[in-house]
Amino acid sequence: MELNAALQAAVWWSAILLLKLATFGPIVGFTRTKRKVVANEEDAKFKGGATVSTSDPVVERSRRAHLNDMENIIPFIGLIFVYAISGAGDAGCVTLVSQIFTAARFIHTIVYLGQVRQPARALAFFTGLLCNVYMAVKVLLHLY
Amino acid sequence: MELNAALQAAVWWSAILLLKLATFGPIVGFTRTKRKVVANEEDAKFKGGATVSTSDPVVERSRRAHLNDMENIIPFIGLIFVYAISGAGDAGCVTLVSQIFTAARFIHTIVYLGQVRQPARALAFFTGLLCNVYMAVKVLLHLY
Amino acid sequence: MELNAALQAAVWWSAILLLKLATFGPIVGFTRTKRKVVANEEDAKFKGGATVSTSDPVVERSRRAHLNDMENIIPFIGLIFVYAISGAGDAGCVTLVSQIFTAARFIHTIVYLGQVRQPARALAFFTGLLCNVYMAVKVLLHLY
Q: Are C80 and A19 in contact (CB under 8 A)?
């Protein structure tokens, strides 16, 4: 299957963002190991000395950062493809929106885990959101 | 890239549902601001007078509504595309399933946030679920 | 729209995994009914005798299993498609990665719900993760 330039850009940036998303689970897992806090009894038995808890502040923070990534990256993946295949955006637009979004989401994670003071995280969040809303509106106007 | 009618319908309805999904995060955020309940200490510092809590009933309700949307809309986006590109459904079928699903999910959100008595939410949920299961089964039978 | 063999394999395995994902919500719901533990007051009114709680260990375990499926299956769906359409993987590779991943995720669910002792769940999890990371890296190297 031949890909046009816009679709190829969508594939490239999707792969980067999906790699980020897929590796966030293990990061939460390593945080659990480091904090010796697990969610299941069978995990506590396996990792001697770990406590079963779902309220460790550091672990819960990393879980919220992960969930926020899911809530934003997954709509992005869907939208960048409908944006590219509908022709609402050309290769340059797909690349630009993807670069802004990817930068915003990496900054969001760093700011969230690093507990940087607000409005740093809010700005990163709204930048990513704006990319998603922009693409959805463009696609709807383009096909209307 | 030229889109056939079925794929174009899938793109259109995906854009609407992804727009709904992407804007649900900020709705939860506004609920937090209104209830003066935040999840992180740096947010409490930024919004003077807010309390750090993950147990406010109104905020948690909106979070569950959001999560339920993710659990259902995301499989739908995947399925409507495999349904359209596999040829298991033509443009009319793609549109009809999308309309039913979209209506069901908007009703689900209104009923959930408005705390309408059951089985209103259950009916909306199962209507959406049925659309997803229907498409998956159709695709599998079509390709088998 | 004609599908090449790689894309057809991606469609087939996506349909199976999306069916698994879409039906996990109701499984959590049935667990709630069986345990008589619901998340909302209107649900408690509807199901006489049910308690409103978000801390029942069996329900929370099924919710974690569901969430873990979302965190892994959704990136997989995105990646299997970019892997197939980019040409980074042919039909044989797409099928093989999908079979390994699908087996790993079904084992993960059984092990999680059945409370099998570790490292059973960890092994299933990392097998699935490896499939995702493998595809992302292959796509990025292929397009670079």
A: no
DSSP label at B51?
E
Chain B CB contacts of C21 under 8 Å are 71, 74-75
Is the predicted ipTM greater than 0.95, yes or no? no
Give Cα separations from A22 to B57, C51, C111 (angstroms): 31, 35, 20
pTM: 0.92
Would you say B14 and B8 are in contact if contact means Cβ atoms under 8 Å apart? no
CB contact under 8 A, B78 and C42: no
CA pair distance C76, C59, nearest whole angstrom: 26
Judged by DSSP in three states, B37 sits in strand
| C-alpha A32 chain-centroid distance | 20
Provide CB contacts within 8 A for B13, sequence distance 6+: B80, B94, B95, B98, B99, B101, B102
Distances (CA, A) of A98 to A15, A95, A131, A144: 11, 5, 8, 24
Radius of gyration of chain C (CA): 18
For residue B60, list chain C residues with Cβ-Cβ distance below 8 A.
54
Question: Which chains share 3+ C-beta pairs under 8 angstroms with B?
Answer: A, C
Read off the pLDDT of residues B82-134 as tens digits, 9 standing for 90 and up: 999 888 988 999 999 999 999 999 999 999 999 888 898 999 999 999 999 99
Question: Would you say A76 and A131 are in contact if contact means Cβ atoms under 8 Å apart?
Answer: yes
Distances (CA, A) of B105 to A2, B47, B98, B129: 36, 32, 10, 10
Quick one: which of C136, C36, C26 has its CA closest to A22? C136
Closest to B28 measured CA to CA, from B67, B75, B73, B72: B67
* Closest Cβ–Cβ partner in A60, A74, A118 for B46: A118
pLDDT of residue A144: 84
For the stretch C48-96, pLDDT in tens is 778 888 888 889 899 999 999 999 999 999 999 999 988 898 899 999 9
Q: A39: closest CA among C135, C57, C88?
A: C57
Q: CA B128, CA B138: separation in Å to the nearest integer?
A: 16
What percent of chain A clears pLDDT 70, i.e. is strictly above it?
Answer: 99
- Whether C133 sits inside 8 A of A23 (CB atoms) is yes
Chain C residues with CB-CB distance to B74 below 8 A: 21, 70, 74
Q: Do A12 and C140 touch (CB under 8 A)?
A: yes
| Tokens at A66, concatenated | 């992960």
User: B110 in contact with C at a CB cutoff of 8 Å?
Assistant: no
Question: Where residue C3 falls among pLDDT bands split at 50, 70, 90?
Answer: confident
Q: Locate C90 and state its tokens.
A: 């042919």
Distance from C-alpha of B16 to C-alpha of A143, rounded to nearest angstrom: 12
